[in-house]
Amino acid sequence: MTDPAAADRAADLDARYGRRTGRRRLPVVAAVVVVAGAGLTWLLWVAVWHSNPPVASRLLTFEVTSPTSVVAVIEVERSEDVVASCRIQAKSADFAIVGESTLTVPADAPRRQTLRAVITTQRPATAAVLVGCTTPHSTRPR
Questions:
Q1: Which pLDDT tens digit goes with each residue over 7-37?
Q2: pLDDT at residue number 119
Q3: CA distance 54 to 78
Q4: Strand, coil or helix: what is 81?
Q5: Do 55 and 67 touch, CB atoms closer than 8 A?
Q6: pTM for this structure?
Q7: Residue 104 in contact with residue 83, Cβ under 8 Å?
Q8: Are 119 and 90 contacting, i.e. CB atoms less than 8 angstroms apart?
């Protein structure tokens, strides 16, 4: 048996303290689950897509051969048969760019190769820096 006075007290307490029934909770929980699922799906897509770039490169060595010349050796690895464009800069002691060279790797070249670049400089350089390689579909240097 249900006590009518207890039900009235519970209704008064609900009204006084703003308690809600459980019916409103289900749409909120469903919306949170949908948003969280979409966020996790996007995160996985970004992680997989950006963890496998179409081209990767690294500077193996460089040598300042004269006051107006730097020789740099880079390694380029491509995951697809695409044209890659690699940019190397020569920098002076004050970090100014004093020379630049762009190497193009044709699509039919081996997927992993070592390239040598001779960079002509405006004034003496102290270092060579690999900016990175890009492809027609990936313009961010890697």
A1: 777 777 777 777 766 667 788 889 999 999 9
A2: 96
A3: 6
A4: coil
A5: no
A6: 0.66
A7: yes
A8: yes
